[in-house]
Amino acid sequence: MPSIFKRHLPWTFILAVLALGGSWHRMAQAADVPDTIAQRVAACIACHGREGASTNAGYFPRLAGKPAGYLYNQLASFRDGRRFNAEMTAMVRFMSDDYLREIAGYFASLDLPYPRVATGSDASAEVLRRGQTLATQGDAARGIPACTACHGAALTGVQPGIPGLVGVPRLYVASQLGAWITEDRHALAPDCMAEVGRKLTTADVNAVASWLATQPMPADPKPIAALPAPLPMACSAMPGR
């Protein structure tokens, strides 16, 4: 720096100029970040894992590859008060329908590998058998349809609005089924899962969640295009799930 500036300019001014120069440098670096949907949803990684592909050891659900209609419905439910999570509500409360659809479409388009399923389970063989029966056959005496009746024979979900149940953390499945029982989670009317949830016991929830957590991912883990037969009456409200 020329000596004239050292003699006549106060150090506070010089430091301010240097600090401003650093700010300009950081702003220039920030301007280089591409404004893409992938960059804008990067905050989701903190909870849901890399690009929305969580592990089976955590609580937060996988987003990658889920049906776009389902993901949009859930984002809208957090925004509109049908689902309750402080962090999710804060993130989406001011987002438009179009933006939520863009986010949902991005995660639905991702095709990422699933983590290896844990081979062991803390649940007893009896509990696992009960979970398998409910998931694949239901309980006709209590009016509970099989999970496969709505979520597909391989339980990978159905387009455009029914999620897969395999490859989802056990704690998450159990907590969401519990939320239907306690009426802490809602969907657009007619609310099919609320009708099913009211018929489940806590033992049912534990059994189903435990059995689902032990199921390996099929060769094709993507949601199927459509069910081969009509949905059960209790699950006829697919768009609102």
What do you see in this structure?
The protein has 241 residues and is mainly alpha-helical. It folds into two domains: 37-109, Cytochrome Bc1 Complex, Chain D, domain 2, CATH 1.10.760.10; 125-240, Cytochrome c-like domain (Cytochrome Bc1 Complex, Chain D, domain 2). Helix content is 48%, strand content 0%. It contains twelve helices and no strands.
Task: Compose a concise summary of this entry.
It is built from 12 helices and no strands. It is an all-alpha fold and 241 residues long.
Order of helices and strands: HHHHHHHHHHHH
Radius of gyration: 24 Å
Q: Quick one: how many beta strands?
A: 0
Q: Approximately how much helix is present in the residues?
A: 40-55%
CATH superfamily of the largest domain: Cytochrome c-like domain
Give the end-to-end Cα distance, rounded to a whole number of Å.
66 Å
CATH level-two architecture of the largest domain:
Orthogonal Bundle
Residue stretches low in confidence (pLDDT < 50, at least 5 long) are 1-7, 236-241
The major pleated sheet works out as: none
**SS strand fraction:** under 5%
